[in-house]
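Retro notes - structure team

What went well: the batch runner handled both jobs without manual restarts.
What didn't: labels got mixed up in the shared folder, which is why I'm recording both outputs here explicitly, each with its sequence directly above its tokens.

Job 1
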Amino acid sequence: MLAPETRAPAEATFPATAHVYICGVRIDNVTKAEATARMRGWIEERASRARAIYIVNTHTINLACELPGFRDVLNAGDAVFGDGTGVRWAARLQGVRMRDNLVGTDLAPYFFAATAGAGYRYYLLGGTEPIVRAAADHVVRTYGVALAGYQQGHFPPRENGDVIDRINASGADVVLVAMGNPVQERWIHDNRDALRVRLCVGVGGLVDHWGGALRRAPQWVRDRGFEWAQIMLQQPHKWRRYLVGNPKFLVRCVREIRVRRRHDTHAAR
């Protein structure tokens, strides 16, 4: 149970808010439908610079607190969406109800369905060669999207220019970048000016899910906020991220709330 001074107010009293700051990371508070409308608008506007979307969870935010410059990379994105129970819990401490859980494994299929017939072309970047090849086949068969191409995500820096050239030559509208945090966000941030695409989205382990390397947790597990446990069971090398990282994240959020309340109290005097 939360201590009295940190207990979130009842959900019914939560005000509507466009965004929330968690450990200094600005997260947009939108539904899947609103996120889809925003993404579609950016594709259609044909801007000269690729738009960047990042999806953050507790691990991403921990990295933003620990890695120099990473918080600035996230906040330079055109949109940052929240993924997971930890983000929702942290928002509730501030009296904000997150309107949706925008995990990439749900958002991408939702976007495919909502924009069916629009003719958007996608490029997959991430995973190993066999995994991304299997993911590409799965996406075409399952969702019927037009795939402009795919590329495994493990390449040396000297090949980066060639990767960008292949993406640009493919005619893709959207690049789904699945390199993991913080690599994918930094790659998007560093290369968005050179990419002739409309939208870059950091999607983490999505290619591994599509390619068969990871199995999605059952719906009842997801509904109870324990999808991270399913991932840890399949990727035990990530145990520290969850068993150490999750408590560290909660401590950071509680400390942030207490500092903010002390500041507000002093400002009101």
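Job 2
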Amino acid sequence: MRLQGKVALITGGSRGIGLAIARAYLQEGAAVALCARDAAALAAAVESLRSLDDGARILARPCDVTRPEEVEALIAAVEAVFSRLDVLVNNAAVLGPRVPIAEYPLEAWREVLEVNVTGVFLVTRAALPLMRRTGGGSIINLSSGVGRRGRARWGAYAVSKGAIEIFTQILAEELAPEGIRVNAVNPGPTRTRMRAQAYPEEDPLSLPAPEEIVPIFVYLASDESREITGQSLDARSFRWP
């Protein structure tokens, strides 16, 4: 019960890594708030979590992270239900097309950056007042290996994850005096729908399931990581200290 009494908000929480994090957090004693654009997928996610809680520790709300009014309503709901926010996991993201930059569609470029960068900014900015009133906390931003070193045909996705790396560093320095730590995590190749979109020829069974990479997210949400901030970490190489 490493997260007993904590409240966590996970964007993109209806499937894949986001849902696996939510399940791990519930198992460790936290209350969780989930958001996603797909209301039906979100409802299915909540149903899959019922074996861990009767619903008292789960809040699910459809939200498009690119829409400021929906983000503000999400944070207001978290405050109304739980009165605090200790952990924010910025997981919501889209892949975009795997094509060369010279062929990249403008609208797709804008959408990827809007969701993957502006969405993280909007959710973080809206969540900070509640985290400050809570007295500190942890922000975990999902990054990627291509956000550290760009690769051909990764286009806007790689650019967006590079931006998240810098965003994490800036925010960590700004919030350190307030006891809010900020870190980026690269999940590495994981058995998710996005990975299958990026590599349709790959055998998904050769990859770890999302549940296998969640220990680092529990660690960063727990008080055991209170000295860790401004770091870019790898989920697959993580070993609990």
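One thing worth noting from job 2: The mean pLDDT is 96.
We'll revisit the folder naming next retro.
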